[in-house]
Design goal:
Two copies of one chain form a homodimer.
Chain A: H1 8-24, E1 30-34, E2 41-44, E3 49-52, E4 56-60, H2 67-86, E5 90-91, H3 92-99, H4 114-128, E6 137-138, E7 144-146, E8 149-153, E9 156-159, E10 168-169, E11 178-182, E12 186-190, H5 193-201, H6 204-208, E13 210-214, H7 221-234, E14 238-241, H8 246-257, H9 266-269, E15 275-278, H10 281-286, E16 294-295, H11 298-308, H12 311-314, H13 317-329, E17 331-332, H14 345-356
Parallel strand pairs in A: 5-6, 12-13, 12-14, 14-15
Antiparallel strand pairs in A: 1-4, 2-3, 7-10, 7-13, 8-9, 8-11, 16-17
Chain lengths: 362, 362
């Protein structure tokens, strides 16, 4: 059963009931869920995403090493249940403050640091098999979208094609959004808001019949989920436009394969069919951009090595060729280097040409 | 004459023509504009904003120390003129790449680093007395807005009250936006997107008849200008909701008084009437939030000292009292600490109460 078909409140209830049975029968209350350490993160070559292996962990109440985490897990479960009951959402930081208090007649706090409540929430995702968003706990909000799509959200009908120069501000939680009409052939996701504004001003999405989406830097969960939903529900291909550097590759990697820390969420967040549109090493040559190379520093080389060693890039000849060329260049390159060719070069030539020829990395 | 009434293309033309006259008359081509160093930044006690003093600087072509900067200034003027002619906008990074090239028969680049083109653009703001945005050069895009306002932008009519959970994504340049209808009594500007989502979900702007605006962290130029326009054109009071820490105070300070690096732009960006809504030292006591104190570190103390020494805070007894209390507490406090009182405590009690009693810092 997919996470989206689960009923979070019901899952939380049965989680609680199971513990009550343990107590009633005089057993040590026990929570069991997948082990969430690197040793249990596997790259599934079939689905081409990161996921968790078979290893399980137990958390018991009568165990000095487990007791505090046990309590924290129950505390965030309680908070999530309250949120669901009153139909409100909270941020990770909010949940931390909601959980943070001193246990009476002791000097022990339920949580001292947000890391603790964050981890408990991730555990709760595994225990209930519901995403944080379904548990009404939101991630950060960031990013904009424009294109020929009409949605319904919180009782409003919103046309992404009619929102002026700003576009729609993507919320942290997109689970409840309903797509009413989607007229587009593909999606370009870019890491930079400034590039988004470039394409938006050039009416790129209108001319090319596509959607344009951006966050700033690393992609938020809200945007990853939005892109995944548009892919799953409308089969829109997703092209990633990022800098030719380790950071750009990593943004692509997370979007496509999932991330190590959220391996248990890959099914809801990863988009195995996403393609890397650019900037590539070949672009540097074909579009005569070498003069805008930025010299690699030590930190760039070590990042590159790290990424080249990822399982999913290791056996990919095309990507290894890119990494090799970057090393030979001794340089990285930014999307905005295309501006040196003219203000609208990216919209008029670079993107249409690359997409038409399907010069994409997998 | 206000910057908004200037015609940027005309200003650029007369800038160029003046230099042509210099050349025709055999004079050393000279640019003259206000000195933009700290020694010429003054706090105007009348307008209560930062501004530039009387000192002027000259940049001449036949001067080894000036020649390169002279050329860079003309180069960005040319780029801006092109942008205005073709009615396109570019980001600071774009302008850098547009300017970056090697002068033929030499090994000298017009610009080597973005800092150079950024500085030249700021100089151009002074030379033409037009803002960067009027020169079609955009800052970063960030942030969201919701409330009972209808605008026209790029041919679209947009109702900020009907944009679902996301809100309108604020563009980097808001000069061309036209307000069609503004129904609100005040604006709350908050530094955190998560708090914005809290208030939005609680329909705070609807219940309280206000607008809610956020960026993430430091306020972008686009948002500062949007707030200023709403204040100037509709006399909407602006209340700032930030953390009780040096960073939160600084966000408020920049919004209200202007910033040192953009002192020449205060007239377009500063909002002297803005008020600080919270979190204050008194809130910590009145709302029983002391248990959520975060201990000040060395960096917090030095930031606090810096801010307490600003001219505009120095003579303000209320603010000095806040700074003193922070030192006594030895602690800072986050907005989200209010969540410990209940999910909607901030919307139901804290904000309505503070605003009703007008418990605001000036």
């Amino acid at each position: 059963m997919k996470k989206q078909e689960k009923k979070p409140a019901k899952e939380l209830e049965s989680f609680g009931k199971k513990l009550v049975v343990d107590i009633d029968k005089g057993r040590n209350p026990t929570i069991e869920f997948s082990l969430r350490t690197l040793s249990n993160v596997v790259y599934d070559t079939k689905t081409k995403t990161l996921g968790l292996g078979e290893k399980q962990q137990q958390r018991t109440f009568f165990n000095v090493g487990h007791a505090k985490k046990f309590m924290q897990t129950l505390e965030v479960a309680k908070i999530s249940k309250t949120l669901l009951d009153v139909q409100k959402h909270a941020s990770l930081r909010d949940v931390f403050y909601m959980a943070k208090r001193t246990i009476s007649q002791s000097n022990i706090n339920i949580v001292d640091d947000q890391v603790e409540s964050d981890k408990a929430i991730e555990d709760l995702e595994l225990i209930t098999d519901c995403s944080r968003e379904q548990l009404n706990i939101n991630a950060n909000k960031m990013g904009s979208v424009a294109g020929n799509v009409v949605i319904e959200d919180s009782g409003d009908t919103i046309n992404w094609a009619r929102l002026g120069s700003g576009g729609w501000s993507i919320p942290s939680n997109v689970e409840e959004i309903e797509f009413k009409s989607v007229k587009a052939k593909y999606i370009i996701y870019m890491e930079k808001q400034a590039v988004w504004e470039r394409l938006h001003e050039d009416k790129f999405w209108e001319k090319q019949n596509c959607l344009i989406v951006t966050s700033q830097g690393q992609t938020t969960r809200g945007i990853r989920r939005l892109l995944q939903r548009l892919y799953e529900e409308y089969k829109l291909p997703i092209y990633v436009l990022a800098d030719f550097d380790g950071w750009g590759f990593y943004i692509y990697s997370v979007l496509k394969f999932g991330s190590i820390s959220l391996a248990h969420m890959s099914e809801e967040l990863a988009i195995p069919s996403a393609k890397f549109l650019g900037i590539t090493a070949d672009d540097a040559i074909n579009y005569d951009l070498k003069k805008h190379f930025i010299k690699l520093k030590d930190v760039d080389y070590s990042r590159l090595k790290q990424i080249a060693d990822y399982d999913w890039f290791k056996k990919n000849k095309e990507w290894q060729r890119q990494f090799k060329m970057m090393k030979e260049f001794g340089a990285k390159l930014e999307i905005q280097a295309l501006s040196s060719k003219g203000i609208t070069f990216i919209s008029d030539k670079y993107l249409p040409e690359k997409i038409k020829k399907q010069e994409l990395l997998d």
